[in-house]
Amino acid sequence: MNVYKPSKIRNVVLLGHAGSGKTTLAETMLFESGSKKRRGSIEQKSTSSDYHEIEHEKGKSVFSSLLNLDWRGSKINLIDTPGTADYIGEVVGPLRVADTAIFALNAEYGVEVGTELHWKYTEKYNIPSLIIVNKPDNEYSDFQKTVDMAKERFGRGVVVVQYPYSEGEDFHAIIDVLKMTMYEFPEDGGKPDKLPIPDSHKAQADLLHNELVEAVAENDETLLDLYLEQGELTESQMREGLHQSLLNRDIFPLFCCCAKRNMGTGRVMGFLGNVAPNPLEANPPKSVDGEDVEPDTNGDPLMFVWKNSSESHVGDMLYFKSYGGTVKPGQDLVNHATGNGVRLSGLYWINGNKRGEANEVPTGDLAAAVKLKDTGVNDTLHPKGGKVEIEPIHFPEPVIRTAIELKHEGEEDKLGNALHQLQREDPSMKIEHSQELKQIIVHGQGEEHLAVIKHALKTRFNLELEYIQPKIPYRETITKTVRTEYKHKKQSGGAGQYAAVSMLMEPLTDHMPEHNDLKVRDTQEIELDWGGKLIFRNCIVGGVIDNRYMPAILKGIMEKMETGPLSNCRVRDLRISIYDGDMHSVDSNDAAFRTAALMAFKKGFMDAKPKLMEPIYNIEVTVPADYMGDVMSDISTRRGQIMGMDSEGSIQKIKAQVPLEELDHYATRLKSITQGSARYSREFSHYDQVPRDIQQRVMEETMEMQEA
Q1: Residue 13's pLDDT band (boundaries 50, 70, 90)?
Q2: Is 3.40.50.300 the CATH number for 6-274?
Q3: Phi, psi at 75, each rounded to 5°
Q4: Which end of the chain is more exposed for a tag (fewer CB within 10 A), N or C?
Q5: Which residues pair with 321 in a beta bridge?
């Protein structure tokens, strides 16, 4: 493959809701450019980007795919991404290395929830963006409605460059108001005839042309002066103005095409080559120190890994973007994160499931490397002595959890290794080996995401398993102050065990009162690993318990706090004062005092009106206004509390607090009641007391497990 100068490289990410036609658009671009001799189709499972088995099964994109093509001397790197929110982890990586984003909108549905989610990321990363209204041949196509929605959601920067001459079954021509030309396509698509704009559309085309010129001019004082002086801008002036406006996100040019029938993609590729920014012009990434990382073609090699894909017979295929110098096989670099040296061996150009050897990768280009030990997503590679570390990709927090149950015993280690590998490839999933719950819990972005993980465990690692209900990490505490004591006495020939401990147990609150009968000699404030605190106080007077036994007493208390009496979950937020006890000069030891403290704690805890606390999560639901009532009603049935609402046009944002137990399969339920148009995010907020009936149920379940 040819090596391109940075000025001739375009890195483009395809975004949009599922079903908007991104994969078909990419396929048509490959075919139209001559990179493929035959157009593949999703139905025939022959597209360059959707080549994984599970993508063939689902009939849609699950993973991001890197493609490349040549269009009139420019290399266009296309990254096709999934449109389903469950696979958002496959979107945020490409967004970080793209210099331009193309949003595909379905002409029937306009701006959908998935599109809005992706748009937020382009705003975050300041990525120049253009819009393609796809599928104008659909019988329910409504181009103007789609344009209106785009302007409502994305702002006045949306400007029409093209619109369909007709829609539905009669679609066959596109009117371009930049070139002031009508492109009429043959029935099977391909190269169009360039025709004058029909009189019936002249007024509309003139109006949109003027709007486009004015939008370009008003973002550049020099062009504005020229426009006011000339009453028009030349083609070269428009090109430069569009280029700068696009780069600054002042303008979002809107095109029209029918990807499935190969109508209009050539014009889009021409626009990318002539107007879209190259990697040297694009907004640079930030370093971890917040500084711009400006690309330096003459500098040292600088690589950033944005994707990891495991390939059979190859191992980890690490996709990277070159941000400096020229990357070549044989170079010795350092992984900034680990400090370890790596030698570049195999470098490859990637085109879907095909790859070709790369002898050099210039600044700004995208490629892949293999056999880079201890290297993964978000790693920065540079020569020894380099100090730049590129800011990592921040993957969204998971919204769903499930526990794993293996069908065959003895495969725990195999499962652990498999999950570790999958997490290397997909940082949007999280693995929790919960000692507290005695479960392996997988956290993902939705039901579909979990299904993909399960499929990989079965097909790649030959692991048979089931997803089961994950336990809830409850917390226990007390509501009443009690005094409790326990005497541990054990005699079985030889040295025995003897220890007596008396303690005051109190629920931890702000501004706690002191007790006149207690003299505090020492206080330890312990921040518990599982949240909350333990205040441990030594109030022993008269030497009834030697100080050297205090660590053992604390150990006994902590041991029981890790497996609370109510649910076997952890205890938090207590103040415990050791105020009396007894010891024996021969039979007392650490083990005896640990046991006495544990038993005293257990007895006192049950007398102190214990309460069970459950994790409460903040959730934010983004939903069209039509479904807001249904969503709010459903939240109420889940013991949720609405905390506030906000709106962006017809899109509503509902903020609420909901117990974790009630969020089980919530993503699926949300899809069901909103016809797939809503999404939500969640994060842990706090612990709160459970209702009495739930506490009783949990205690009974715990007792049954202990008896079993």
Answers
A1: very high
A2: yes
A3: -90, 125
A4: C
A5: 304, 366
Q: How far is CA 87 from CA 90, 97, 395, 669, 693, in A?
A: 6, 18, 11, 18, 38
Q: Of how many residues is the chain composed? A: 708
Establish how many alpha carbons lie within 13 A of residue 140's alpha carbon, considering only the half-sphere containing its beta carbon.
4
CB 110 within 8 A of CB 146: yes
Strand 475-478 relative to strand 570-571, pairing: parallel
CA angle centred on 397, ends 452 and 125, rounded to 5°: 105
The answer to whether residues 271 and 253 touch, using CB atoms and an 8 Å cutoff, is yes
Query: Given this model, what pLDDT does residue 708 score?
Result: 60
How far is the C-alpha of 453 from the C-alpha of 426, rounded, in Å? Answer: 10
* Distance (Å, whole) CA 157 – CA 251: 4
Q: Angle at which helices 590-607 and 550-561 pack, to 10 degrees?
A: 50
**DSSP-based three-state secondary structure for 600:** helix
Q: How many other CB atoms are there within 10 angstroms of residue 179's CB atom?
A: 17
pLDDT tens digits along 77-113: 999 999 998 999 999 999 999 999 999 999 999 998 8
Please, which residues have CB within 8 angstroms of residue 466's CB and are 6 or more apart in sequence?
404, 405, 407
Q: Where are the domains of the chain?
A: 6-274, 302-382, 400-468, 480-604, 612-694
Same fold, 400-468 and 612-694: yes
pLDDT tens digits, 531-548:
999 999 999 998 899 999
Integer Cα distance of 592 and 577 in angstroms: 19
CATH architecture of 302-382: Beta Barrel (2.40)
Q: From 3.30.70.2190, 3.30.230.10, 3.90.550.10, 3.30.565.10, which CATH number describes the 480-604 domain?
A: 3.30.230.10
By CB atoms closer than 10 A (0-12, 13-18, 19+), residue 297 is middle
Q: What are phi and psi of 294, to 5 degrees?
A: -75, 130
Q: In sequence order, what are the residues at sequence separation of 6 or more whose Cβ sits closer than 8 angstroms to the Cβ of residue 287?
A: 293, 388, 389, 390, 391
Given a cut of 80, whether residue 493 has pLDDT beyond it is no
pLDDT of residue 650: 72
What is d(CA 516, CA 223) in angstroms, rounded to the nearest whole number? 82
